[in-house]
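Quick one, tokens below:
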């Protein structure tokens, strides 16, 4: 019969005129665009986080105000001059579990002010019971 020869079949994938990888310039352009977008978005994100932390502090101070009103009904005046959660808890009964420093300061008798500073340094000061910022 004849001599059998092995033939090698090469199958090529069509590339449709496109290169198989990215050039260094294309990668650098993408990295530059990502860096630019990040530099715009990062400060906005930080402001959003700080405003949400302030909202939590305001909500906590509002919950404290219910205990202050109850204390005023029993004693005729607001509890003021309180520094720290333990002193606030033992005086008006308000208990909260967080890492925030609270201080109840004197007002003119018809109001008091509460200063709250969380562990990240975000702070809120409110005149209570009118809930206006200091």
């Amino acid at each position: 019969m004849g001599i059998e020869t092995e033939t090698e079949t090469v199958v090529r994938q069509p590339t449709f005129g496109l290169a198989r990888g990215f050039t260094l310039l294309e990668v650098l352009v993408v990295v530059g665009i990502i860096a630019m977008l990040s530099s715009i978005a990062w400060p906005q994100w930080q402001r959003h986080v700080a405003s949400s932390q302030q909202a939590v502090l305001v909500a906590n101070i509002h919950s404290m105000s219910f205990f202050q009103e109850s204390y005023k009904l029993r004693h005729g005046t607001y509890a003021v001059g309180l520094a720290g959660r333990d002193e606030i808890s033992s005086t008006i009964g308000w208990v909260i579990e967080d890492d925030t420093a609270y201080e109840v300061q004197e007002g003119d008798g018809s109001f008091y002010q509460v200063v709250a500073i969380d562990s990240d340094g975000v702070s809120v000061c409110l005149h209570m019971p009118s809930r206006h910022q200091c």
